[in-house]
Amino acid sequence: MSHRSALLKIYHRLFECYGPQNWWPADSPFEVMVGAILTQNTSWSNAEKALNNLKKSDALNIHSILKLTEKELAKLIKPSGYFNIKSKRLKNYVTWFEKEGRFNCLNKLDDNILRERLLNVNGIGPETADDILLYAFERPVFVIDAYTRRLLKSMKMIDGAESYEKLRFFFESSLSADIGLFKEYHALIVRHAKEKCTHLKNCRHCIVETPM
DNA sequence: ACCCAGGGTCATA
DNA sequence: TATGACCATGGG
Question: What does strand B contact on the protein, if contact means CB under 7 A?
């Protein structure tokens, strides 16, 4: 079976199981970017608490994040963990976003150029960059995370030690560049992981009957 | 009391 | 390039 067929089969099985996830949960693209940083190595429920604190303080905007001191911001995002580092990363990212002319200018850049620019911002690694590219900038980039790697490995479709870029290329070269599909696929993989289904057989959350 | 969560940076070899 | 230390809260 081709990689394309296998990946589509997995997607359809996940969708059949869980339905549309409608990611990313946010009121605006800006909130997506902030949330992507806050949820780094942190449960979404904790990141959400931090986001709610920012909203309550009317601080979920460029001006407030730049105006708040590092300590004030850290206090607001405390529930997300790593609050000192994330405070720096947030201010750092928003400073860059403002300097680059926000969405108006950044939207004009090609996908790969924009990705390189994002990766050059301290605190933005490959996964956070791709979250932002896919869910805030609506670019056809496939997000890889630990769950994605685990899933493909359990399917015996990869060895497991492949680089982030290699896995991203695996998805992007096998599937057509469909933003809606990429958004839903990554969300479904995370949803599936939350069901704590680690095996493949005899389970109602089973993705396929047999490994591919 | 432990383990993990929608990662990334930096120093070291 | 490839490991290891570090960052820190909240829920199970």
Answer: A 23-25, 35-36, 39-44, 46, 81-82, 85, 121-129, 131, 135, 145-147, 190, 193-194
A137 Cβ neighbours under 8 A, 6+ residues apart:
A29, A103, A106, A107, A114
Distance CA A91, CA A70 (A): 8
One-letter amino acid for residue A127 of the chain: E
Distance CA A58, CA A23 (A): 23
Strand C and A52 CB separated by under 7 Å: no
Q: Which residue numbers in chain A have pLDDT < 50? A: 200-203, 208-212
pLDDT, tens digit (0-9, with 9 covering 90-100), for A95-128: 999 999 999 999 999 999 999 999 999 999 999 9
Residues for chain A: how many in total? Answer: 212
In this structure, what token pair is assigned to residue A77? 């995002």
Contact between the CB of A83 and strand C at under 7 Å: yes
- In the complex, which nucleotide's C1' lies nearest to the CA atom of residue A79? C9
Set out the domains of chain A in order of their start, with CATH numbers. 3-21+142-194 (no CATH), 29-135 (1.10.340.30)
Return d(Cα A81, Cα A69) in angstroms, integer.
18
> Which residues neighbour A201 within 8 Å (Cβ) at sequence distance 6 or greater?
A209, A210
Name the helix (H) or strand (E) containing A101.
none
The whole model's pTM is what? 0.95
Question: How far, in Å, CA of A55 to CA of A38, rounded?
Answer: 14
